Amino acid sequence: MTLEAVPESLRGELSRWLIEVQPGVYVGNASALVRDLLWDKAVGHTRRGRCTQVYRASNEQGFVIRTHGDATRRVVSLDGYQLVAVRNARHAQLAGEYDPPEDDDKL
10 Å Cβ neighbour count for 57? Predict the structure, then answer.
């Protein structure tokens, strides 16, 4: 799990369950229940910060990604693979130039 711009109290709470190997980067081997509870706590206390969690899963990639709080990055699924889409200045420029058709469900 990674945390950015979050309260110190949240970082301290996570360090009880995981090891902070770099500032804001936590690793550990927690059960699915503990993992989900830690995620709920992080999301609930993030405020204006960001958090990302990557954990093992029995899928093609071998892991799952979930993010919270970063509008410039989002996880998208493409043919069963999770990818991170990044919105940058070029995206904003292209979005302003592109006028999607009314029925964009067929795209």
Answer: 13
Tell which residue, 91, 47, 85, has the closest CA to residue 69: 47
pLDDT bucket at 72, cuts 50 / 70 / 90: confident
For residues 14-51, b (16+ Cβ closer than 10 Å) or e, as one string?
Answer: beeebebeeebebeeeeeeeebeebbeebeebbeebbb
Beta-carbon contacts of 106 under 8 Å, excluding residues fewer than 6 positions away, are none
pTM exceeds 0.85, yes or no: no
Residue 95 in tokens: 């979005």
| Six-digit token string for 42 | 């992080």
